[in-house]
C-alpha cells in the first residue's frame, strides 16, 4: 500500500490520553493533517470515544503504521513507542515522523525523522493545539542553523547522497563553510554557513577551489552518480528539482523494457538525473501506448498528451520529419511535446534510437532561500473567514488536488493593489479578493512601479495542480489618471494588431476605463463573450477589476476617472499554446474566469473551449454541428468523407457535454464522427469517454457477439482483447459476425445519443477505424453527411 505522507496514525492507552487525542482532533485535521485514531487497552474510555481498537500487538500495529502513514503519534511513554517501533526503524529518509506526547499534552517530543519526515514540525503543531511545549533536540534546530534535508523536503528537491547530506549539516555545525553552486537564479540571502560559488556543468563532483574541507552543494538537474572521491576533494551533494519534461515518441506496441532502456540511456548520456523528470509528453495518438503507460507508472512520471494541432502551434526551431508529419500530422513530436508540456526550453534535442525518439525541456525555476514551505498557495496564505480545507482542494480520480486562481483573479488583485497605492499611498504585499465562487483569498502582490500619476504592480498566476500553460505567468496591472499612460503598454508588442477600445464602467459619479496591454489578445471574430475589436478580458473578470478600483475610489472619496491597463509580458508567446488563435483572438492570452478559481486537470477549461467553438458556429449561421473526439476523426473527415475538417468541433472525451451545448445554442442537427476506440463506449451509454471514467468496449462487443451467435471461446477472446482493432479481428474470423455486431452497436449508439439529445436535436453518428474505414452508421447518417457537404 502506498504511504500517505499527510496521514498520521495516533494511538492512546488511557482515559486521559483519549481525552487529549479528542482535543487534538477537535478541528478535524491538526495543522491540515489527516489523523487515523486508535486505542489499545481495556479502558475505561470516554463515552463518545469512537477510536478504532488495536486487535494485534502494538509492535504489529506499528509495522502497519510504518508502511502506510507519513507520521505516528504515540500518547504515552516514550519507552513503549521506541520498543514497538524498533523492529521497523531503517533510516531518517524512509522512516515516518514519530512524535511522543504525555497524556496531559505538556510535551511533544519528536523521536524519529525530525527533519525529512517533519516530525519537528508535527510536534510544534500538536504542542500549539495542546498548549504544551515541543521538545526539539536536532542540532541544527537547537543551534538555529541551516538543515539541508529540511530545505530539500520543503522545496521538493531530491537528495542525491544521504551521507553527503549528513556531512553538510556536520560542516555547518562545525563552522566549516559549505559551498553552494546553483544552475538556477537565486532569491534571498544564503543561510549562515553557506557561500555561493559559480555553477559549471563540467564540475560534476567537486569545485576546483574547494580543497579538503567543506562540503559542496549543487542545485541542478544535471550531475553524476556518487563514486570515487578524488584525493583532496569532497563529494558533491546534488539537490535535484523535478523540472524536466521528456518528449517521447515510439513505435506502436513497443516492448516496455526496451522503451525504458532507451529513455534511461538518453538521460545518462545527457547527464540528467532521472529524478529530475516530472512528466512525459507525447501526441494524443500515443496516449494509450502500453509501453509509455508502463514507463510513467514505474517511474512515477505524469503523462501529458497533445493533438497534432496543439503541437504544430508551438513556436521555435525543431527537427522535422516528412514521414512523421504524414503519419501524425506534425513534423516533430518529441521536441514540440516537451516544450509545450514543460513550458521551458529544450536542453536535449531529438535523440533517435531503436524506434524511440526522446527530447527534454527544462522549465524555469528560482531557488528561494527564505522559503519556508513549498510554493506559496495564495488561497492558504490568509483566510479572512474560517473555511475548511475542502474549500481549496478537490478530488480528481480519487486524488486530492489543489485548486488555483484564474488570470481574472490575478488581474483583480493587481488592480486592487495598484489602485490602493495610487489613491491611498500604501503598497500592500497581499490583497484580499472575494471570488465569484464565494472563496475569500489572500493574493501576493509584487514589483510595484510608480510615477507622478500612475502605479503598476504584478501578480503571478498560480494554477494549483492544473497543467495550465499560463501557470506562473505574470499579470501586470497599471492604474493611471492619464489615459495616454495606459496606451504606452501596448507599444512594446512585436507585431501590433488593431488597437482595442476601452471598456467603460460608471457607478453614480465614478468613472473607470479598462483596456489590454502587451500580451493581452484582441478579439477578431464574433461569437465570444467579448465583441470583435475589443480586448479579450471576459465579463466576469472585467467586473472584478472594476469593483476593486471602484472600492478604492470609494474609500478615498474620489470619483475618477481612472484608466486601468492589464498586460501579460509573456502573453503573446503563451497564446500560441492555447486555443486563442483558433478562436480568433490575436496577439495574446485572454483574461478569463467565471468563478475566479481554476479547477485541476483542465476539464472545465476544455469544456469551455468546446462551448466557445459551438457558440461561434451557431452565430456564424451553421445549421448542422459536425463534431469529432480527436485527430483521428479530423483526418477521417477530410480524407474519407470529403468534408472540411476545419469545420468540425473537436469535442475530446466530452460527447455528452457537446450534445448538451448543441441543444443550448439552437442546433437542430448534429453529426458525430468517431473512432471505434472511443465511440463504441457510447453504445453502453458512456458519454465521457476518457479511460479514467469508464470503458466497457470489450464487454459491449462481446455481449453483442454473443447475441449474434458467437461461441463462448470467441467471446472470451474478445473480452481479453487489449484494443478494439484486436477485437474486430476476432469478430472477422467468423463470416458476417463483424457486420452483424456493428449493426447492433450502431442501434445502441443511436438510442443513447438520442436519449441525451432529446427531441430538439436530431443526431447521427459514423463509426470508423483507420484501417477498416467506416464500420457503421446510424440510420440517417448518410443523408446528414450530404447536407453537410451542400451547406459547406
Automatic annotation (TrEMBL):
<comment type="pathway">
    <text>Cofactor biosynthesis; adenosylcobalamin biosynthesis; cob(II)yrinate a,c-diamide from sirohydrochlorin (anaerobic route): step 6/10.</text>
</comment>
<feature type="domain" description="Cobalamin biosynthesis central region">
    <location>
        <begin position="146"/>
        <end position="231"/>
    </location>
</feature>
<dbReference type="InterPro" id="IPR036518">
    <property type="entry name" value="CobE/GbiG_C_sf"/>
</dbReference>
<keyword id="KW-0489">Methyltransferase</keyword>
<dbReference type="InterPro" id="IPR021744">
    <property type="entry name" value="CbiG_N"/>
</dbReference>
<dbReference type="GO" id="GO:0008168">
    <property type="term" value="F:methyltransferase activity"/>
</dbReference>
<dbReference type="Pfam" id="PF11760">
    <property type="entry name" value="CbiG_N"/>
</dbReference>
<dbReference type="InterPro" id="IPR038029">
    <property type="entry name" value="GbiG_N_sf"/>
</dbReference>
<dbReference type="Pfam" id="PF11761">
    <property type="entry name" value="CbiG_mid"/>
</dbReference>
<dbReference type="GO" id="GO:0019251">
    <property type="term" value="P:anaerobic cobalamin biosynthetic process"/>
</dbReference>
<keyword id="KW-0808">Transferase</keyword>
<dbReference type="GO" id="GO:0032259">
    <property type="term" value="P:methylation"/>
</dbReference>
<keyword id="KW-0169">Cobalamin biosynthesis</keyword>
<feature type="domain" description="Cobalamin synthesis G N-terminal">
    <location>
        <begin position="61"/>
        <end position="141"/>
    </location>
</feature>
<protein>
    <recommendedName>
        <fullName>Cobalt-precorrin-5B C(1)-methyltransferase</fullName>
        <ecNumber>2.1.1.195</ecNumber>
    </recommendedName>
</protein>
<dbReference type="InterPro" id="IPR036074">
    <property type="entry name" value="CbiD_sf"/>
</dbReference>
<dbReference type="InterPro" id="IPR002750">
    <property type="entry name" value="CobE/GbiG_C"/>
</dbReference>
<feature type="domain" description="CobE/GbiG C-terminal">
    <location>
        <begin position="245"/>
        <end position="361"/>
    </location>
</feature>
<dbReference type="InterPro" id="IPR002748">
    <property type="entry name" value="CbiD"/>
</dbReference>
<keyword id="KW-0949">S-adenosyl-L-methionine</keyword>
<dbReference type="Pfam" id="PF01888">
    <property type="entry name" value="CbiD"/>
</dbReference>
<comment type="similarity">
    <text>Belongs to the CbiD family.</text>
</comment>
<dbReference type="Pfam" id="PF01890">
    <property type="entry name" value="CbiG_C"/>
</dbReference>
<dbReference type="InterPro" id="IPR021745">
    <property type="entry name" value="CbiG_mid"/>
</dbReference>
